[in-house]
Amino acid sequence: MRNFKPSFVLAVALHILIVLLFSISFLTDSDTARTAPPAEVIEATILDGAEIDAEAERLKQNEANKHQAEVEHQQQLENARKAEEQALQQAKKQRVLEEQKIQEAAERRKQEALEEQKRQEQLAAKRKEEEKKLEEAKERRTLEEKKAKEAAEKQKQAELEKQREIAEKQATLEKQAALEKQREVEKLKQLEKQKQQEAEREAKLKEQKLAEEAKLKQQQEAESKKLEQEKKLQEQKVLEQQKKLQEQKAEEAKRQEQLKQAEAKAKAEREQQLAAERAKVEKDRQAALNAEKAKQAAEAEARAKVEREKQLAAEKAEKDRQAKLAAEKAEKERLAAEAEAKAKAEKDRQAKLAAEKAEKAEKERLAAEAAAKAKAEQERQAAIAAAEKAEQERKAAEAAAAAAAKAESDKQASSAAKDAIARKVEGAWTRPISATQGLKCTIQVKLLASGDVMDAVVVSSSGDPIFDRSAENAVRKASPLPVPQDRNLFNQEFRVFTFVFKPE
User: Fold this and answer.
1) Which of 151, 324, 418, 426 suits 10 as a labelling partner, its CA being 20 to 30 A distant?
2) Which residues are 444's β-sheet partners?
3) Which tens digits make up the pLDDT trace of 304-358?
4) Using CA atoms, how far apart are residues 203 and 208, in angstroms rounded to an integer?
5) Other Cβ atoms closer than 10 A to 281
6) Residue 278 backbone dihedrals phi, psi, to 5 degrees
7) Three-state SS string across 350-396, please?
8) What is the pLDDT of residues 127-178, one digit of tens each?
9) How much is the pTM?
């Protein structure tokens, strides 16, 4: 209504002026009818009527053009609203696709956890088979020891037979009885000494076997503990992955909620602004939609990149673990082969003792290597944890720095935009004749994303209505206003803002 008021006033003024002219012409005609020629009166009357008809026709045409322009503008606003609703539906479909992708990723992680559990069960079965092989090797050694004892008993019996033969010879050979007896005593002493040495060797062998069995048992317990630790680490990793997934879901839900709130707010603003939007809205909306799609594509690509990096890290860890298990298996097979070779060499006691000493040294070396490997693994895990912590701190610092830089950039962009708006409005302002120095007023301005002025209303008057109207007209005349390109900054500070108009 405010836009039509000057035209209406002008039309009324023109009609009044025409009526006055017609009245003056009529009076003039009455006065000059007696003196002036009739032809001149008729000619003047015809000219005034044509001007009146032309002016009336022009006013009607202007009103019709304004009405047509208003109808076209409303149609364009309706088309823009429909296009925006379609864009919102596409955005919702995109969010549904993203949620499906997140669920698929969760299913993949769950499947990987199940596969890891199966691998752990297979490792446990292999460990049981290795323990069974060790038990069989121990039984073989026991059988060989038994055979060795039987051979010793046979040798003892042979010696006893030999002693009986010597005793019979002593009975038949009286002359050599004393010498033979002395020799027999010496032989008996040697035999006793040999028996004592044999007993001592057997005792040492038993002690060494017991020590070996104890060491084997300790080694098995250490391996079992190591496997349990690895299993706990894998379970901890799975729990951490699940926790990260839950955090990602929570962040996604929060982001979706924020998007919904922003969409609801934007929709409410758009419903208030439909009555005043202009022809450029379709082009600006399309550009905004393209930017949003590009942003969503970039976010999807970033998430896919993070998922790929996580998958590569998991595959690398799995390869390292498989290589480690293969090395441990090869080491166990080598130890089993050595134990079997040593069992076969048990026939020769001296060689067996040497082999046992070598085996003892080897076990000590392996124990030292295992301790060194465990220490190195602990140091590696500590280094990895420290590196992860440092990376998290670095990312947090970068995020804080980026947020501070963004805030400063937004502040500078806002200040620059406000200064540019003030300059452009002052450049479009036409000073009224009645305006005095020092007048100012506060104007509330509503803008589209393109900078086009939807509405400009004085909310704090200068006291001079003509100055206030000239300020509103200057804001509309300066449309489109220079606004920041950042959509978030525009929505926060420039969608609806107050502007102090104070011309120098």
Assistant:
1) 426
2) 457, 498
3) 787 888 788 778 878 888 888 888 888 888 887 787 777 777 778 887 887 788 8
4) 9
5) 24
6) -115, -170
7) HHHHHHHHHHHHHHHHHHHHHHHHHHHHHHHHHHHHHHHHHHHHHHH
8) 888 888 888 878 888 888 888 788 778 887 877 887 787 767 777 777 776 7
9) 0.28
